[in-house]
C-alpha cells in the first residue's frame, strides 16, 4: 500500500507500560534528559508527525512548528490550520492524505488510539520504545488493546541511555 512511506512510532513508557499517569500529562515531565535528546535528534528526519487530540493539546506549541496530523472526532472533514491538519479517521482516508502530501517518513507520537490505528492497519514499520525505570501502577497504556490480534516485532537494537537504567529499544514490524 505504501511502498515509499515509512511509519515509525516513538513511545516513552514506564516499566509497567504506561505512557502517562493521565491523558493531560506531558511525557517530558517524567522522562530522562537522554530520552529527550534522542527524541529531538530523531524528529528532524521526518516529514510529518501524527498525534491524537489529547497529545496535540498538551504539546500544541511544539507541534505547530512542524507538519502535524491530528486525529480528532471534532471535525467532519480535514481542516488545515497553518502546518497542522485535523483529520477524523472515520470520515477521511488518512493514508490517502499522507500519499497526497507526498510524506516519505512519518513519526507516530501517540496516544494509544493513534498507535492502535497504525498497528491495526499494519502501517507501523518501526517502533522506538524508551523504557524509563519507573512504575506508575495506573495510567495511560501504550496501546488500548481493543480488537487486537497478535502483532510480531523483531528487536533491531537495545541501548542503555543512562546510569539510572533508561533503555531504548528499536523494533521492526515482523509480520
Total helical elements: 5
Helix content: 10-25%
Instruction: Please state how the strands of the largest beta sheet are arranged side by side.
Output: 5-6-4-3-7-1-8-11-10
What general outline do the C-alpha atoms trace?
globular
Amino- and carboxy-terminal Cα gap: 15 Å
The CATH superfamily turns out to be Dihydrofolate Reductase, subunit A
InterPro entries: DHFR-like_dom_sf, RibDG_C, Riboflavin_Biosynth_HTPR
Pfam families: RibD_C
GO molecular function: 5-amino-6-(5-phosphoribosylamino)uracil reductase activity
Protein name: Bacterial bifunctional deaminase-reductase C-terminal domain-containing protein
Task: Report on the architecture of this protein.
- The protein has 175 residues and is α/β, with parallel strands linked by helices.
- It has helices at 33-42, 53-58, 60-63, 94-100, 112-120, and strands spanning 6-14, 18-20, 48-52, 68-71, 79-81, 84-87, 105-108, 126-132, 140-141, 153-160, 167-173.
- The strands form 2 sheets. Strands 5-6-4-3-7-1-8-11-10 form a 9-stranded mixed beta sheet.
- It is globular and about 45 Å long.
- The two termini are 15 Å apart.
- The mean pLDDT is 92.
